[in-house]
Amino acid sequence: MENVVIKVVGMSCQGCVKNLTGALSGTPGVNNVAVSLEEGEALVSYDPARVSANALRAVVEDCGFDAA
Predict the structure, then answer these.
(1) Whole-angstrom Cα distance, residue 2 to residue 53?
(2) First vs last Cα of the chain: how many Å apart?
(3) pLDDT tens, position by position, 5-63
(4) Dihedral Cα 49, 54, 59, 64, nearest 10 deg
(5) Which is nearest to 57 in space by CA: 66, 48, 47, 49?
(6) Which residues does residue 2 pair with via DSSP β-bridges, in sequence order?
(7) Which positions ≥6 away from 38 have C-beta within 8 Å?
(8) Helices 14-25 & 53-62, crossing angle to 10 degrees?
(9) Which of 43, 55, 61, 48 is nearest to 6 (CA)?
């Protein structure tokens, strides 16, 4: 497993956190997700053989947020 911290811009409430957590958790290859509204980031533990960090950033953007 590898970990990536994705900066997330545009979250404004716990609903955003819940939606993003669900989207990332449902991505094949993702083992664990911790989204922080206060820090504006998502820490994702994932299997690099199944999903890439760039694909995880795309999931964040598909949820309507900017990912860095």
Answers:
(1) 9
(2) 21
(3) 999 999 999 999 999 999 999 999 999 999 999 999 999 999 999 999 999 999 999 99
(4) 170
(5) 66
(6) 46
(7) none
(8) 140
(9) 43
Place of tokens 């911790």: 34
Q: Give the C-alpha separation, 12 to 3, whole Å.
A: 24
Distance from C-alpha of 1 to C-alpha of 14, rounded to nearest angstrom: 27
- Whether pTM exceeds 0.90: yes
The number of residues making up the chain comes to: 68
Residue-wise pLDDT tens digits, 22-37: 999 999 999 999 999 9
Q: Which amino acid type is present at position 56?
A: L
